[in-house]
Amino acid sequence: MASPEPLNEEYPTEIHEFLVGFEESLKSADGTLRTLMSVPRSELLQKLDPLEQAKLDLASAYALNSMFWIYLITQGINPKEHAVKQELERIRTYMNKVKELTDRQKASRLDKGAASRIVRNALWEAKPEGRSKIPSQSSHH
Question: Does pTM top 0.70 for this prediction?
Answer without folding.
Answer: no
